[in-house]
Design brief:
140 residues; mainly alpha; globular
């Protein structure tokens, strides 16, 4: 199966956004950027959702932005709801990175932050595509 250059480029862009999002999220999580505790928790959760969206885009690029957003939201909400069980706590004891992926404590406010993160990422991608399309028509 051949992969087009544009598909490869889109996957590279999604991968780059994934890595940048993880970097920004870790900066917020580690307290390098001094924000109020509540704000850093909400921002960290939203950034985690953006990272999930980017990862889904890398894997399922042909499905399109909207479908990938639905998949990412289901994954993110599923993991948040999983926090109602002891499973994430047990996984967190295995390795610290698993705590960052699965969390430990359910917070209903995270459901909103996850939605904002995924939808925000999708809207940024769609807006970028619209701008690129308009600019390419404007240049002779």
């Amino acid at each position: 199966m051949l992969v087009s250059a544009s598909t490869t480029l889109e996957r590279l862009i999604a991968s780059a956004f994934f890595l940048v999002t993880i970097g920004v999220g870790m900066t917020v999580r580690m307290g390098i950027v001094h924000l109020p505790r509540w704000w850093s928790q909400v921002l960290g959760t939203a950034l985690w959702a953006v990272a999930v969206y980017c990862a889904v885009r890398v894997v399922a690029l042909p499905l399109g932005a909207r479908r990938c957003a639905v998949i990412a939201l289901v994954i993110a909400l599923g993991i948040e709801i999983l926090q109602l069980t002891p499973i994430p706590g047990r996984l967190s004891q295995i390795h610290p990175l698993l705590r960052l992926v699965f969390g430990e404590v359910f917070d209903p406010g995270d459901l909103i932050a996850l939605g904002i993160g995924v939808m925000g990422a999708m809207f940024v991608e769609l807006a970028g595509r619209t701008i690129r399309a308009r600019v390419s028509f404007a240049i002779p």
